[in-house]
Design brief:
The complex is a heterodimer of chains A (274) and B (366). Chain A is an all-alpha fold and 274 residues long. Chain A has helices spanning 22-47, 64-71, 73-106, 112-124, 127-141, 147-170, 175-183, 188-216, 220-225, 232-241, 246-273. Chain A has one domain (64-273): Orthogonal Bundle (MetI-like fold), CATH 1.10.3720. Helix content of chain A is 74%, strand content 0%. Chain B has two domains: 7-238, P-loop containing nucleotide triphosphate hydrolases (Rossmann fold, 3-Layer(aba) Sandwich), CATH 3.40.50.300; 243-356, Nucleic acid-binding proteins (OB fold (Dihydrolipoamide Acetyltransferase, E2P), Beta Barrel). Helix content of chain B is 23%, strand content 37%. Chain B has eight helices and 20 strands. Chain B has helices at residues 49-57, 99-109, 114-127, 143-155, 173-189, 201-207, 225-230, 235-240, and strands at 7-18, 21-33, 38-42, 64-69, 72-73, 84-87, 161-165, 193-198, 210-215, 218-223, 245-254, 258-263, 266-271, 282-287, 293-294, 301-313, 316-323, 326-333, 343-348, 353-356. In chain B, strands 6-7-8-3-9-10 form a six-stranded mixed beta sheet, sandwiched between helices. Chain B has a five-stranded antiparallel beta sheet with strand order 13-12-11-14-20. The chains are: A mainly alpha (274), B alpha+beta (366). At the A-B interface, helix 7 and helix 8 of A face helix 2 of B.
Chain lengths: 274, 366
């Protein structure tokens, strides 16, 4: 041990250590990540399982559960509700996020930092707090719970999600481009349309996609704000308590695929710019 | 005055609030630019030259004073209502538009039809020899090409005045010389008014019809390159432009043309082009190193002194002398057959020796 580095001309601390057991690190990594991701893998597997209950062992491959899902009226309705909610909340959140980003980027005003922190609160606070608070607020206002209350709730945490990438990109915007457009005769609205928006476009889209995914599978806040119409995650949640069939696994797998695709798209848009 | 000049600034001030009070980025600047002139604003960084340009372009609004363009008061008009265009320091080309779209922008925004725009863009691309670059994006262009696009974009809507903010500073020294001449030719060819901001005195002297030398937010002197170089109005101008020798002394006698100054016991004859001192006043004299002649001659002034150093600068030799009147630097073409310890006479004409107001601090040379 002591003479291990005796024939090495380089100081032992500078000498890259030879990896003693390369398989050890690899197996630990596999084990840890396997433990974390195994449930998802199992869920996907079960959605193809030819068995009436949501459990192992695996009895054979079938697409029956997907077939059932596509014909299930209440799943379809809740899916449409979810899409409506996510689309509206995303639109609202992205617009407000864009305005907020502009205000922060462009102007100095009293309480600017407090404003930024307040905007980020909905993602920092536990959903259950936000949910209860909004429920109390809506009932005080006498607003009946509906898809609209869910939309407002989702837009609330959608704003900071959209704001993040937009503000980051906006802060890289060279002001001289704006001046050049003014100089060539563009009015403020035209400057935004022709120069500023094209510069931040992919950040806006990526922020919107993130807000969409978060809204699409949100449960905690939604539970408090749901009236008669369920969103898809609430529908799944409700079913889990009564009849647990592999149909749920099929729905979950579909959500996973769509959400995953959106996240990948959103990330690649961010990378494209920087 | 403001009616026949194309751009007229009437004692404009641009003030920024600071922790200690107010900072005058531009102070009481009055400038009148004639139509077709190549007019330079020359100064070091922080001299207020770029702020002055931005006041003309409409990117800043002066706290006091008026801005006229073509006789019209535009002081508070936004940039898009002014008939001037700017070539920005780093060109500020729109990165998401092609070269052709960049050039067409002012026409597109003016809502001209595509049928009107296309031939003019074509013409501009040809004029600036970038016809093959129309479909490229700015990020794929060299510095020189970007500069041409910026010029084409600013000129396509035929503005009355073109504002240029250090347009050559982003280019390599090699092509800068080349582009400089092209710029001057272009300006003469289309008979446009150029207002040109630069910190490079050589550039300003080579290009301009007139130069306004700026220092600490104020105009130190306005004149042709020759006036500025030969007859500097202050010691700042004298040392900012070219090299200069300064001597200090007291006025012995003065008439309408000449002044006789006592410099450390030597009587020196000089001229007073911009500043008339009284007898007994302390003044500064400025002599360009190339106006000093080595050896005895029939010139108005003559002193002797000791040569202490010779430096080669390109094709010129620079001699440093120690005189009773002070240190002098003399530049001459070739002829190094002089020993360093020799006592030598130096002479110069009164016409090349200018009385300027006393400087607060006299520097050796600039």
């Amino acid at each position: 041990m002591i003479n291990q580095f005796a024939d090495s001309p380089v100081h032992p601390l500078l000498h890259p250590r030879k990896q003693a057991k390369p398989w050890l690190l690899a197996s630990w990594t596999t084990l840890v990540y396997g433990f974390l991701y195994l449930p998802i893998a199992v869920l996907i597997l079960m959605s193809f399982n030819d068995s009436a209950i949501l459990s192992l062992p695996f009895k054979g491959i079938t697409l029956d559960w997907y077939d059932l899902t596509f014909r299930d009226q209440s799943i379809r309705l809740s899916l449409i509700n979810s899409l409506k909610v996510a689309a509206s909340a995303t639109l609202l959140a992205t617009m407000l996020g864009l305005f907020a980003a502009f205000a922060i980027y462009r102007y100095q005003f009293f309480g600017k930092n407090a404003f930024r922190i307040a905007l980020n609160l909905p993602i920092l606070l536990p959903g259950i707090v936000t949910g209860v608070a909004m429920l109390a607020y809506f009932s005080d206002l006498g607003l009946e719970l509906s898809l609209w209350t869910i939309i407002i709730g989702h837009a609330m945490f959608g704003i900071p999600v959209a704001l993040g990438p937009i503000l980051t990109r906006l802060s890289q915007f060279p002001r001289r481009l704006e001046e050049a457009a003014y100089d060539l005769g563009a009015k403020p609205g035209e400057v935004f349309r022709d120069v500023i928006f094209p510069y931040i476009r992919s950040a806006v889209i990526s922020g919107a996609l993130l807000a969409f995914t978060l809204s699409f599978d949100e449960v905690v806040v939604t539970i408090f704000l749901t009236g008669r119409d369920n969103t898809l995650p609430i529908e799944i949640w409700g079913r889990l308590r009564t009849d647990i069939t592999p149909e749920i696994a099929a729905v979950a797998t579909l959500i996973l695929v769509v959400s995953g695709a959106i996240v990948v798209l959103s990330q690649s848009l961010i990378n494209q710019d920087s | 005055m403001k009616d026949d000049s194309i751009v007229y600034l009437e004692s404009v001030n641009k003030i920024y609030p600071t922790a200690k009070g107010e900072f005058y980025a531009v102070q009481d600047v009055t400038i009148e630019v004639q139509s077709g002139e190549f007019y330079s604003l020359l100064g070091s960084s922080g001299s207020g030259k770029t702020t002055t340009l931005r006041l003309i372009g409409g990117f800043e609004i002066p706290e006091y004073g008026q801005v006229y363009i073509g006789g019209e008061d535009v002081t508070t008009l936004p940039p898009y209502r002014r008939k001037v265009h700017t070539v920005f320091q780093n060109y500020a080309l729109f990165p998401h538009m092609t070269v052709a779209q960049n050039i067409a922008y002012s026409l597109t925004i003016a809502k001209l039809s595509q049928a009107e725009i296309a031939p003019r863009v074509e013409e501009a691309l040809k004029m600036f020899q970038i016809a093959e670059l129309g479909d490229r994006h700015p990020s794929r262009l060299s510095g020189g090409q970007q500069q041409r696009v910026a010029l084409a974009r600013a000129l396509i809507s035929r503005p009355k005045v073109l504002l240029l903010d250090e347009p050559l500073s982003a280019l390599d020294a090699k092509i800068r010389q080349e582009v400089r001449q092209e710029l001057r030719n272009l300006q003469k060819q289309i008979n446009l008014t150029f207002i040109y901001v630069t910190h490079d005195q050589e550039e300003a002297l080579a290009l301009s019809d007139r130069i306004a030398v700026m220092h600490k937010g104020q105009v130190e002197q306005i004149g042709t390159p020759k006036e500025i170089y030969d007859r500097p109005a202050s010691s700042f101008v004298a040392q900012f432009i070219g090299k200069a020798n300064f001597l200090t002394g007291r006025v012995l006698d003065i008439n309408s043309e000449f002044a006789w100054i006592d410099v450390n016991g030597t009587k020196v004859k000089a001229i007073t082009p911009s500043y008339i001192p009284a007898i007994g006043d302390s003044v500064t004299l400025m002599i360009r190193p190339e106006q000093l002649k080595l050896g005895n001659s029939e010139l108005d002034n003559q002193v002797t002194g000791r040569l202490i150093n010779i430096t080669y600068i390109g094709q010129l030799l620079e001699f440093q002398f120690e005189m009773t009147i002070g240190k002098l630097i003399v530049t001459q073409l070739g002829n190094a057959s002089i020993n360093e310890i020799e006592e030598l006479a130096i002479s110069w004409n009164a016409n090349d020796c200018i009385v300027i107001p006393p400087a607060k601090k006299v520097m050796g040379n600039g």
